[in-house]
Design brief:
alpha+beta; de novo design (two linked rop proteins); three-stranded antiparallel sheet; 8 helices
Length: 251
Amino acid sequence: MSTPKTYTDHALILRTQNLGEADRIIIMLTRNNGITHAVAKSIRKPNSKFGARLEPYMHVALSLTQGRGTLRTITQTTTLHAYTAPIMGDYTAYTTAAVIAETCETLTTNTPPEETPPHYTLTHGALAALAHKKHHPHHILARYLTQAMQLAGWPLTTNTCIHCGTPTPTSYHTPHGTLCPTCAHTTTTPLTPLNTQETTYLNALTSGHWDTIDKTPTHTTQKILNLILNTTQYHLETPLKTLTHLETKTP
């Protein structure tokens, strides 16, 4: 019998699932191997060697053993960044992190591991920003989703019309991008009108201009966040279950 392969990696813990009486399956996005499911044996026992290091939103270094099939076994773990406590200590940050984790898992589950490092970097940055309270959680979520959709090949086109390419300060949003007023009148696709301020906010989310993002009025951030969430679910072709707990009030 061949010896199981053991390897190391860094990982962001996205969620967990109990297994048997004392074990737990850890679902994580790793830096080098994409989405990975691994068993942490006896983690639910009081004297577990893993402690709280494998809770959702932790950033850890791992040693894993690859046995038969796709399920790995975690043999050792070291904390790199403890994001769990500060995120779970703020309900809005916690519900936001849940949406980020679910979106990340959905986007990367069937993605080749060599294509997931940008998602790993993006998700790590979003969780770190939530833990350190750098911005309001919903701004962080809107920025994350905008970038995640871009990585997945579904950019939110905000400064030019997707039909004619005309730059337009005011436009109409569709799940496939934005239309200028002229092209909007020739389509049967459901449209959401965007004014200059809303388009500016979307552009700031795309480019990462946090001064503009943080100063955007509440009614604009609310409308655009809902728009981004709806567009994200349209492209994912599945509802995000964690949205049922997300607070809809923005700063």
